[in-house]
Amino acid sequence: MRLAFPLVVSAFLFSLGVFGVLVRRNAVLVLMSVELMLNGVNLNLVAFDAWWADALHGGQVLTLFVITIAAAEVGLGLAIVLLVFRNRGTSDLTDLGLLDERTEDDQRPADVDQPEDAR
Amino acid sequence: MMPVLVVLTPFVAAAAGLVVGRNRLLAQRVAVVGTGIALALSVGMGVMVWVGGPSVDEWGTVPTGWVPVTIATRADGLGATLAIMVSSVALCVQIYSTAYMHRQPRYGTFAALVSLFTAAMLLVVLADDLIVLLVGWEVMGICSALLIGHHWEREEARSASVKAFVVTRLGDVGLLAGILVMADLTGSFRISELQQSATASTALTVGLVLMLCGVVGKSAQVPLHVWLPDAMAGPTPVSALIHAATMVAAGVFLVARLHSVYLLSSVALAILAIVASATMLLAALAALAQDDYKRVLAWSTSSQLAYMLGALAVGGYSAGLFHLLAHGAFKALLFLAAGAIAHALGTTMLPDMGGLRRSMPMTYLVSSLGLAALVGLPPLVGFFSKESVLGAAEEAALHGGPLPAWSAWLVLLAGLATVLLTAAYATRAWLLAFRGPPRWSGAAHDPPPAMRTPVVALAVPTVVLGVLAFMPAVVSAMFDPGDQVAAEPEGLSFDVGTAVVSLALVGMGALAVFAEWRRTGQRDPSVSLGQAHGLLADGFGVDRLYDTVIVRPFLALSRLVVASDRDVIHAYVRGAGRSARALGGLPHAAQAGHVQGYVTAVLAFVVILAAAGAGAALL
Amino acid sequence: MNGVELAFVLLGAVALGAGFLVVTTSRIVHAALWLAVSLGAVAGCFLLLTAELLAWVQVLIYVGAVVVLVLFALMLTRAPIGPAPGAARGRVVLAAVVAAATAGVLLVTLLAGLGGEVIDLEAADIGGGEAVGSALFRAWVLPFEALSVLLLAALVGAIVLSRGRGDEDGR
């Protein structure tokens, strides 16, 4: 089989995962998109392992590791999502604005000298 | 040495007065004693000048990068005479004020300001350097404005104070320009230099005419006369001292001091004659229709000052100064008597007076003397002084003088017409205030001793000073300008013709008013003027004219400036703030807390970098 | 194109199509199920590339455990059953652009470098249990042990996190 086929599929899988991470509102869906990305990577690794055919089977072993770590990561990630859901009541990323550094008076239109103009 | 002491004494009294101001008794003592010492020193200086002749003292030079200013004083006949007059009137006013301002607030400041004013006027009178004179001139101006506004709780006092200051300041711009022109011509600010080295030229005329602006402002002549009637909002002692005898006389004094220079320019004298003639008539007409007694006296002051300036214009040096002294005496007397009426009745409005002959006999007597002197009845001083003025005018008109003949005629005719009008308004005031039935209620009595004594003291020169007309040597010594210019200043000249004509006019004016008074049942005779009454009472609408032509556009301009500052310049300031904020808002939006936004940005840049790297590798 | 390639193309299409639905469908639970389909298709791809053990590990762990975990999480966070609102239009466009750029860069890089290569499936060592196991426990034993520690840590962490504060007081 030509190497191009797995490479194309894995590239597209990865891009789909990227799109999902950037676009999805639900935190769990973001984690699912990360899984997609990791699968794209796995496919790439396995394809290269088959093509390279080295004695250490590095590609496949690495894929095994990736799968394991992905499982661990998704477990922890979902635990965190659950915790956030319990504390905030929502798992929608657009409602979770804790990193928002804008303060209240930044929302007002800039009018620098209001007291003076109050004639 | 003496002139400096004379000036410094009231100055020190002013400073001390400000310090002890709260303690009314102490402030009174400081004021009266200070002015008394100044008077004594002035008399002493007069004696020294009489015995030893005029002298000039220099106290240092102030370099200016151009013509230096010399701190110099001169003691001569003119200076000494006026110093004595100023300090004696000031002393009368200070003594008078201790009773008049008895229950008024801020007496301490008042007395201190009067002392400061006295010091400034003495400085003007005794200065030998035009800039030093200007310093005294301006200090007088500010003291006058502050004293007019003494009762600053009242709107009219505040606005009168500002008006006086602004109008006289306007004249002072011309004065300063004139002084600078003179300094440029002679290379010195010294009056003695000026008197010696001035020669007739166009530039000299320009300088003299510019200085006349200051005279016109300070001495309330047309067109800068509008501040004087409104200045009556100040306390009566202030009106007596500043707006009758001294400050307004400073303009006359300036022309007199520089008279030998003015004689070189017939143009300047002609202009002065025109201004004086116009003011004489206009002011006398306006005085005829005023309801406030003090305003009658104020317009009258303008008119009499015009007499003095007219005399100086036609070359009657001694005549003008004689009238200055006479007017200082009887006008101060009239103002202080008016103050006594105000003290008793609580008003100075003529329609609210009447019959004071019986209730306030002493006031009636001295006021009658003062008004008679104003009108020019012999043997009071007013008769002699006014006749000397008319005599000088007649001399210049018929026999030629330092100014064109037509302007001398103008002064003469205006002077005679004003005699009629003066008699008219003086009789009207006398009748409305003192004769007829009383139009007020309550009790009225003559003032307390502290107020009575100065009034009586001023009545003495009013009656007696006329004797100077028969003592030409004394007169020439008194008004000796102290310079070494060859020509002797004019002495007093009288003419029988003008005397007879003016006495006839006095009789006509007085009788006409008296007849009207009887005819209208002892009511205001001026209502017979009909339509003209309103115009005259308004001062011929000059105030309204100034308001429309000058004040309103100026206020509109200030509003424009305020608006442009707020909407144009300040808009830039605000705009700077706003645009900084807006500009900051752009990156601020990137801190909005959307994690996926952050990731998108990071990833986008990574992709760009990778693409760049791949492109570099492939190409 | 031979049979292997054809099969690979079909499986790849399934994986990509299911993946596309994962990231675009508005029904969240459906997305989880489509993920399962996609992961299964990838397992098939592994098989075609002679990685047998990996294929079954993929099915076991991903489809079996991870997808179930995700479904549990969705349930516990009360994901809506019906259609849920999506992201704002602008964000979608921006993300699409970035994703397309990523795909472009990757494709260009990979194909430009290695596009013409061919995998020799006959000669490849079958990725059976013995082959992978011997590589794992000989050459890769150290990372393997480290990985087990990592798994332990993840396990403990997940338990600690999901217990919540209330359990500490024994309520």
Tell me about this structure.
Chain A is mainly α and 119 residues long. Chain A is built from 4 helices and no strands. The longest helix of chain A has 31 residues. The C terminus of chain A is likely disordered. By secondary structure, chain B is mainly α. Chain B has a two-stranded antiparallel ribbon. Chain C folds into 3 domains: 83 residues, Four Helix Bundle (Hemerythrin (Met), subunit A), CATH 1.20.120; 30 residues; 40 residues. Chain C is mainly alpha-helical and 171 residues long. In chain C, helix 1 packs antiparallel against helix 2 and helix 2 packs antiparallel against helix 3. The termini of chain C are far apart. The interface between B and C is medium-sized, with 11 and 13 residues.
Short summary of the structure?
The complex is a heterotrimer of chains A (119), B (619) and C (171). Chain A is mainly alpha-helical and 119 residues long.
> What is the CA-atom radius of gyration of chain B, in angstroms?
31 Å
Task: Tell me the major beta sheet of chain B.
Answer: 2 strands, antiparallel
- The CATH architecture term of the largest domain in chain C is Up-down Bundle
Overall 3D geometry of chain B?
Answer: globular
Helix content of chain B: over 70%
* CATH homologous superfamily caption of the largest domain in chain C: NADH-ubiquinone/plastoquinone oxidoreductase chain 6, subunit NuoJ
- Measured as a percent range, the helix fraction of chain C is over 70%
The helix count of chain B comes to 25
Mean pLDDT of chain B: 88
Report the CATH topology name of the largest domain in chain C: Four Helix Bundle (Hemerythrin (Met), subunit A)
Strand content of chain B: under 5%
Strand tally of chain C, please? 0
Low-confidence stretches of chain B: none
Please tell me the overall pLDDT of chain C. 87
Q: What number of domains of chain C?
A: 3
Strand order within the widest beta sheet of chain B: 1-2
Q: List the secondary-structure elements of chain C in sequence, H or E.
A: HHHHHH
List segments of chain C where confidence is low: pLDDT < 50 over at least 5 consecutive residues.
none
End-to-end Cα distance of chain B: 103 Å
